[in-house]
Amino acid sequence: MTARRIISLSWAAGVLALAAATSPAVGISRDESVYVEAAASYARFWPEAIRDPARVLATADRRYAPNHEHPGFAKGLFGLTRTALFDIAGVTGEVQGSRAGAWLLASFLALLLSLWGCELAGTLGGALAPAFFFLVPRNFWHVHPAVLDLPVTALMLATTYAFWRSTSASRGRLSTAGWAFASGLLLGAALGTKHNAWFLPPVLACAWLVGSFRGRQESHGPASEGAVGTVRGHRFPWALVAMAVLGPVVLVATWPWLWHHTLPRVQAWLGYHLHHENYPWMYMGTLLREPPFPVAYPVVVTALTVPAAILVAMVGGLLQSAARIVAAWRGRAPAVSIPTEWLLLLSSLFPIALIAWPSVPHFGGVKHWLPAMPFLALLGARALVTTGRLLWPARAGAVTGVLALLALAPAAWQVAHVHPFGTAAWNEIAGGAPGAATMGMQRQFWGDSTVAVLPAVNAHAAPGARVWFQETTALAARQYQRDGRLRRDLAVAAGPEDADVSIWQYHQEFRDREFRTWTEFRTARPVAGVLLDEVPLVQVYARPGAWR
Fold this sequence. Notes:
By secondary structure, the chain is mainly α. The protein has 20 helices and five strands.
């Protein structure tokens, strides 16, 4: 087995094992609670359809009705792993069983990052690229929950990788047709996971078109700057044809909700996301509410959440890629693949630019431009390897190792320090959680932090107490109960008026809920809470006599 395969498979196995080990501490987010229920319903479809094929469409309507505003591929995978690990084997709870599907896709993403990193910057690049992604605390948090954001990121990266292989001279084991076929299937899986995959074919087509300018020549000599094999080619993008044909087929095949009334349901699906709920205060502190920052908020939030050393490497990688294009245009870098550089640049920048567009709703933390992060990780890893070679060519490996340690050790500490509160992670530039709170930025997002106060609620809430979970959904509360993490005698309240205990998580756009609790309970003093670096993330309030 080659060194590249060993590195890639090691990363895949390591991410899978680490995700499984660290997942139980991560709370259930709002979206995840819905997807876990939907996945359970989807998993029941196939046995029922096989038993009664004459009623397959009626069964599809019933089983795929939950959360039908999102496609079925990833949730179908969550349901499959839940069935295997929870319903059949009984080795996990329902939530962890559903999450295993997300862990598998995170492992796949690590494998792809390592393989592509090896192509761009040798074995050192393959070893570093996954680290540049997974040691960003918010990226690491997204490894765990059974939601759609990291799965679609992995599948979009895989589609782009297959497209690159099909159009470049570095094909690997498959033929051009084989990689094109694979890209069509992978795009279908990405479309079947989340709607933002629809933007991928135009981005790939644009990268091919701009790369065609002075980018047609091929070089069969050794690649520059540590890339392996021949990297310069510009074949016709048959992958785009395969995507146009196979993508919709895979989407419909993996989403039985579309098996009839297809066109009206596709229109309803796309229409829903064109008029999505918008939280204008989401992640927009004092700094971001003044022009021009509301437009650039994904850039600013990225700059305040990615660990500083990794951020510097990623920015350096963007600049290096642009410089390689210019050098190749001027004939000074004949081994540089212009199409490859444009593909990496556009894939890194487009998801961020899309969310920065003024008419696009602002919500959801960093998850909506998460597909940019693997490409930034690839560019950052290559930039670090290049820096090591430039500083000491004779000892490039050792120098790169030292630079990697300096860049990644603080990030690894941040990941460990904030876990399981990855949605509350802010970097050194922001001043950590205290600095971000001072700027008025969100302290956490998605309702998962409630998990940290459940032991206190279990120990102190009066028997039969009604609990208002505020941002944590009623579905999540019941999932905690079924998994044995929340007492079953506790009831879910609809608001402070009928609650005995209120769990408040700091969200700028929902601050009125805390004020309602103070007014109803006639106290502003919490009985329990969780702090990150002395910054409150969750506060628990109780009526007199409801907290023992």
